[in-house]
């Protein structure tokens, strides 16, 4: 798994490199000290995962994430790593296309596991972050749930079958595939197929983006 490090602190990047390079299945392909450089290096080195700090000079990590994940098919997954436990960073990062969000006070094992999760195409949020995503969107009148869909997103939502729409609702509740299967009385393999179709039709990369989309589209309503 090819990993690019983006953080404006040299000691932090060195620490990440030391942690990651002892793993046989992880290769650090480059380091960037600002967001603009991260975007350039992501295009040049084609990593599987970018570890992205939020506050960096020249271009911040949120805009860098937007540009990296917006590059189309094959774009690397972005794991936001920050010391700032702030909801505004969390939701901005998710809307920018990040597939994971971890605080820097996590353990080396959690960091390595997160990279492996993102590299295989899944999404990851620390459990406490997942709870905050759901609870914040569930608060009536919260600005996190007030974005408006464009015409393309509205059309994509209309492409969902009733069963796929039900799957989207359960994804928004944070349900695992096993929990969705139990709720809908389906096999897990069938659920995986439905989830894949939902993501493909809505143009979403992963389950994290599906949660955000479900609330912003009104499929799941704050307080509902």
Brief descriptors of the model:
alpha/beta; 224 residues; Arc Repressor Mutant, subunit A; Rossmann fold; 6-stranded parallel β-sheet
Residue ranges: pLDDT <50 for 5 or more in a row? 140-148
Total strand segments: 6
Strand content: 5-15%
Structural class by secondary-structure content:
alpha/beta
What profile does the largest beta sheet have? 6 strands, parallel
User: Which CATH C-level class of the largest domain is it?
Assistant: Alpha Beta
Radius of gyration: 18 Å
CATH domain fold name of the largest domain = Rossmann fold
Instruction: Please count the helical segments.
Output: 11
GO molecular function: DNA binding
Protein name: Response regulator transcription factor
Keywords: DNA-binding, Phosphoprotein, Transcription, Transcription regulation
Domain Response regulatory: 2-119
How would you explain this protein's 3D organization?
By secondary structure, this protein is of the alpha/beta class. The chain folds into 2 domains: 124 residues, Rossmann fold (3-Layer(aba) Sandwich); 75 residues, Arc Repressor Mutant, subunit A (Orthogonal Bundle). The chain is built from 11 helices and 6 strands. The protein is globular. The N and C termini lie far apart (40 Å). About 4% of the residues have low confidence.
């Amino acid at each position: 798994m090819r990993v690019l490090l983006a953080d404006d602190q040299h000691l932090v990047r060195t620490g990440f490199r030391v942690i990651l390079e002892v793993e046989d299945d992880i290769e650090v392909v480059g380091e960037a000290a600002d967001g603009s450089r991260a975007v350039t290096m992501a295009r040049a080195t084609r990593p599987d995962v970018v570890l992205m700090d939020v506050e960096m000079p020249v271009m911040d990590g949120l805009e860098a994430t937007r540009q990296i994940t917006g590059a189309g098919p094959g774009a690397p997954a972005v794991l936001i790593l920050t010391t700032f436990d702030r909801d505004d960073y969390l939701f901005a990062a998710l809307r920018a296309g990040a597939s994971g969000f971890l605080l820097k006070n996590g353990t080396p094992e959690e960091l390595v596991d997160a990279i492996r999760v993102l590299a295989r195409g899944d999404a990851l949020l620390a459990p406490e972050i997942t709870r905050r995503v759901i609870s914040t969107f569930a608060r009536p009148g919260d600005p996190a749930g007030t974005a408006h869909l464009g015409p393309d997103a509205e059309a994509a939502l209309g492409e969902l079958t009733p069963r796929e729409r039900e799957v989207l609702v359960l994804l928004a509740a944070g349900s695992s595939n096993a929990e969705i299967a139990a709720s809908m009385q389906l096999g897990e393999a069938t659920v995986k197929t439905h989830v894949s179709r939902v993501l493909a039709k809505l143009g979403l990369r992963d389950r994290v983006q599906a949660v955000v989309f479900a609330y912003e589209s009104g499929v799941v309503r704050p307080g509902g």
